Amino acid sequence: MRPSGRELNEMRSVSIETGVTKHAEGSCMIKMGDTHVLCTATIEDRVPPFIKGSGLGWVTAEYGMLPRSTTSRMRREAAAGKQGGRTVEIQRLIGRSLRAGVDRVALGERQITVDCDVIQADGGTRCASITGGWVALRLAVNKLMKAGDVISDPLVSPVVAVSCGIYAGQPVLDLDYPEDSEAGVDGNFIMLGNKQMIEVQMSAEGSTYSRDQMNLLIDLAEKGVDELAVAQLAATA
After folding, report:
1. Annotated binding site for phosphate
2. How far apart are CA 214 and CA 170, in angstroms?
3. pTM of the predicted model, to two decimals?
4. Residue 177 backbone zone (phi > 0: left; psi -120 to 50: alpha; other: beta)
5. Per-block mean pLDDT, blocks of 10 residues, the chain (237 long)
6. How many CB atoms lie within 10 A of CB 203?
7. Nearest to 48, CA basis, from 138, 130, 112, 134
8. What is the CA radius of gyration of the chain?
């Protein structure tokens, strides 16, 4: 039995509220159970120097956790004077995941920055950030298209992420914190909406896993991706 009482293949409740900030070109609040992430997308008519003049667009991301997003207060990274290694790793993951679903030629020479701020954490913050980040990106691109600034849609597919793992010897979908902290195997699966894989992060944490178990986790992840893609498209319809 999972601590939440969910079935092994059952997602947490998911909601995506759009238009939650006044100024950002695209924004949403994604809630996956008790993990809540504010995602905003900002359009800028510039690109990083390494692609300037190429005609290609760029999508990048930043990620952060509020001091009381967890059970005890964490110090702001700005106060520490630098980002932690976990933060840097996650925001790079978000950026490269979102770029996998973008036609950068169609986007044109502009940059969209997706900011993901964790308001409340209960496991799966990077997956929620990617899934919600795509919604914010979609809304921002919609504005570009409505204004006629891009001719063809640069978003080729939704980008979705979900966690799976082996908890108490059983493969489970969408781990919350009690499961994540005790899981023998933990994995994050990032895919396009058609379930083409972008990135898989799997690690044994106190237990090894077999090829068959990995296949079971991929099957669970595909189920989660299907459900989350439906929620993304409903939110941006």
Report:
1. 86, 124-126
2. 12
3. 0.97
4. alpha
5. 95 98 98 98 97 97 96 91 93 98 98 98 98 98 97 97 96 97 95 97 90 97 98 97
6. 11
7. 112
8. 18
Q: What is the 3-state secondary structure (H, E, C) of 181-232?
A: CCCCEEEEEEEECCCCEEEEEEEECCCCCCHHHHHHHHHHHHHHHHHHHHHH
31 touches 174 (CB < 8 A): no
Kindly state the greatest CA–CA separation across the chain: 56
- Picking from 7, 9, 4, 3, the residue whose alpha carbon sits closest to that of residue 219 is 9
Element (H, E) at 175: none
Residues 6 or more apart whose CB falls under 8 angstroms from that of 104 comprise: 56, 57, 58, 59, 154
Domain boundaries 14-73+80-236, corresponding CATH code: 3.30.230.70
Q: For 56-123, what is the HEC assignment?
A: CCEEEEEEEECCCCCCCCCCCHHHHCCCCHHHHHHHHHHHHHHHCCECHHHHCCCEEEEEEEEEECCC
Whether the CA torsion 104, 63, 159, 93 is positive or negative: it is positive
**Which positions make up the binding site?**
86, 124-126
Contact 29, 37 (CB under 8 A): yes
Yes or no: say if 189 and 161 are a contact pair by the CB < 8 Å rule: yes
Can you read off the two tokens belonging to residue 74? 């964490």
Report d(CA 87, CA 66) in Å as an integer.
12
